[in-house]
Amino acid sequence: MNSLINLLIVDDRHENLLTLESLLDHPDFNIIKADSGSQALEKMLENDIALILLDVFMPDMNGYETAELMRSNKRTKHIPIIFVTAELAERDHIFKGYDAGAVDYLMKPIAPQVLQSKVGIFLEIHRQKLELEKKTRELNAKVRELEELQQQLKEKNKQLKTISTIDALTGIYNRRYFNEMIEMEWSRSKRNGSLLSLILMDIDHFKTYNDTYGHSAGDNALKAVAKAISIPLKRKIDTIARYGGEEFIAILPEIGQEGVLELGKKMMESVRNMKLEHKGSPVKDYLTISMGIHSVVPDDNINSIDVINAADKALYLAKDSGRDCIIVYNKKDGL
User: Fold this and answer.
1) How many CB atoms lie within 10 A of CB 194?
2) How far is CA 20 from CA 7, 30, 39, 52, 111, in A?
3) Which of the four CATH numbers 3.30.70.270, 3.40.120.10, 3.40.50.2300, 1.25.40.20 does domain 175-333 have?
């Protein structure tokens, strides 16, 4: 059911108010009456008025003064006013009325058809305004809804990206993320002419560990090792990832061979300090890791794959040398 439209009629003569009220009688209208300018201003503040029919000449405060006060109030300044005035005697005041804010005039004596026609026009404009406001609110609600959905989508995409770059078992980065980061860091180091180091790690005799303690224990061991080797990495620019199976790899920008070797020793010590039992290992009676290291300043003669292969060769030699040790790649030594 539609709300009634509030019409305010203002006249100091009671009989004029009754006449206007009878002429404007309509089931869609709620007629509000005021017999003075001050009372009219009160009614405007108390009600949501669609249109005002305002008599020009009233004692104490005339129609012009009332209109000027209306225009000074934020709530009432945009309410349309139709001035009601004598057809001939007050014709000279028409321009003054428009200056005060009138949108139209009605001349006395009032012709019912003219009154109803003019009021109908302004009320149709009012309905269109209400409809526009409704559509605007609906549109704003849709915009807010779309913004919320967009934010939710952004969060979901962020979650999906996180899921796609994190190793589900260990909680560190996965090989996919490593592949992205090595290319980014390679390009950055090449552009800046700075060192880039890799550490490739492997848990010693991990197959034997799984065979001895079971795959569930093996999964727990992988998680523990991932946590242990992450502890020495303090810089935000360093990346540690699970490279595959029991292999892990670290990207260490802007650090040379001596620095990365020292860091590798700390990572190995962090794993040793867990004292995670490994009775099946011929190396130690607890879990250990082996490492291959390579440091390089990227240039046009090599690529990131060459560095990974070099670190892998160094790791292979570390395993061949008894494990639980670090080997630094050295091309001169035939690695």
Assistant:
1) 15
2) 11, 13, 17, 12, 11
3) 3.30.70.270
**SS3 (DSSP) at 260:** helix
Per annotation, catalytic residue among 68, 246, 262, 269: 246
Residue-wise pLDDT tens digits, 252-265: 999 988 999 999 99
Q: Which residues of 106-130 are buried (b: 16+ CB within 10 A; e: fewer)?
A: bbeebeeeebeebbeebbeebeeee
| Intervals of CATH 3.40.50.2300 along the chain | 5-134
Q: Are 64 and 56 in contact (CB under 8 A)?
A: yes
Whose structure tokens read 């001035």? Answer: 83
CATH number corresponding to 5-134: 3.40.50.2300
Which structure tokens are listed for 27? 């089931």
pTM check: above 0.85? no
Q: Is 148 a catalytic residue?
A: no
Do residues 79 and 109 touch, judged by C-beta distance below 8 A? no
| Spatial CA neighbour of 244 closest among 175, 323, 322 | 175
Q: Which residues contact 327 (CB under 8 A, 6 or more apart)?
A: 291, 292, 293, 314, 315, 317, 318, 321, 335
Q: What is the pLDDT of residues 115-128, one digit of tens each?
A: 888 888 888 887 88
List 289's β-bridge partners, or say none. Answer: 203
